[in-house]
Amino acid sequence: MNGTKAKQFRDSVHGYIAVPESFCERFIDTSILQRLKHIEQTSMRPLYPSARHDRFVHSLGVFHLASMAYSMICQNTAPRLLETLPLDDYRAAFRVAALMHDCGHSPFSHSLEAHYNRQDRAKNFLLRQVVDEEFSKDYASLCKYRGAPKAHEVFSAAVFLKHYHRQFANMCQGIPGTLVARMITGCVHWEPKDKAEEFENCLITLINGAAIDVDKLDYILRDTWASGVNNVSIDVHRLLAALELVIRQGRLTVAFRKSALSVIRSVIDGRNFLYRWVYSHHTVKYYDYVLNEALLFLDRILSGDDGQGRLLDAMFSEEAFERPVCVGPCCLYLPCDDDIFSLLKMHAADSPHVEELLSRKPHLIPLWKTQAEFELIFRDKDAQQRAYIQDRVAEKLNPVLGITADSTGVLTLPVAPGVLPIEESNLFVTILNDVMPFKDLAATWQEVGRERQNVSFFYVYIPRACKDRINDCIGVLKAMTV
Which of 64, 80, 85, 385 registers the highest number of CB atoms within 10 A of its CB? Predict the structure, then answer.
């Protein structure tokens, strides 16, 4: 595989990305993957207008980092740990998973992907493609003990198995396509029975793991570059050059050499910065809400007398990846952002949410704009009291603002920042002839505890016309008790 001709893609983040022509022919130059050029990478453009980047270039970036990571694993790991393994086939499978990990992503990035879970369609779609009983058992264990994978991961794994299994089988004879599905969904072998499955678990966590993986590395770098925020600098080459596999508690485990200690800290800080200050920003969250409300309105209009949900069922269906699916006057095929915007613009005059989305002039404004303000306002409230307040925001504020049932009311949006505390990260470092959890090393320079527990909070939005009552509203909420 290393000796084949390659096509060079010029990338703004990584420079030139070399992709074997066989990958281009089998995967990249297909309508399903090319569709990703029309799906934005994030939903942060209401906040950062320059952040115009898509899932296609992200997929190329993850492929590039996966290629680097695999090469360094083979170079740095003790040969006795890798002997008898079909390393060339595993290399191809690892790179295919990296390239195809978002192949079934929903339009508008994560803003709409929950619709893949309507009636468990993503999970059912995936399990219909799987004939491997062990995968099905491990997937059930994953959902039960660690939580279900993200909806777009499940759908992407299913799309890969249904539409690319032949291409993959011709490339990697002897490696099942379900291994790629495992990598995309993060579904490890819960009880690996041999060295091969231990090795596969290492590769799975490097595509979709709890701590540092090549997917996270690319979106941290790419979202930082595209938005222009002053995030931390991450020396990704130094980080990946320190990758190796070691034996820990009797099993193969991914570890980083001590030379990457500072970069590991930077990755955690960089990721948490984006989740705290960008992805959880009140503007980003608000327009996610507006987009979903506009789509639900569109569904009600276009589903017609046949029942609400027909448009959503078509737009987020496996059939739409194969052929045009018609709902009323519209047909959907390989649905992307452009399709939804086109439909929304046709009905802009009928919905305030659509007009609000197109104009980017919000009808509601937040009472507070950061989690820091939230914590100051409710610092004397415990978790139970905060939940009580969240549930009764509208009940308490509507009389203060003079809001009636037929007017635009108060909006409450819960936020889970997704911060990764050091204590919870599954990271290991080889140092002083030992393999240590990164959290133990971090404790030696008093870093553990720097990140708070990943505490959820909420935003409250009120009509713009009531902006002079913000302090009154905050006072009412602060005074609430259980």
Answer: 64
- Distance between CA 197 and CA 188 in Å, rounded? 9
pLDDT at residue number 46:
92
Pairwise CA distance, residues 471 & 482, whole Å: 21
Sign of CA dihedral 166, 172, 174, 180: negative
Report yes or no: 436 and 301 within 8 Å, Cβ to Cβ: no
pTM of this prediction? 0.93
Please choose, from the candidates 216, 245, 228, the residue with its C-alpha nearest in 3D space to the C-alpha of residue 101: 216
Which token pair is 54?
A: 């898509």
The CATH number of the structural domain formed by 6-279 is 1.10.3210.10
Domain locations in the chain? Answer: 6-279, 283-362, 363-417+455-482
Average pLDDT over residues 78-97: 96
What average pLDDT is seen over the chain?
Answer: 92
Q: Determine the average pLDDT of the residues in 336-354.
A: 91
pLDDT value at position 4? Answer: 73
Encode burial over 192-211: b for 16+ CB neighbours within 10 A, e otherwise: eeeeebbbbbbbbbbbbbeb
* Size of the chain in residues: 482
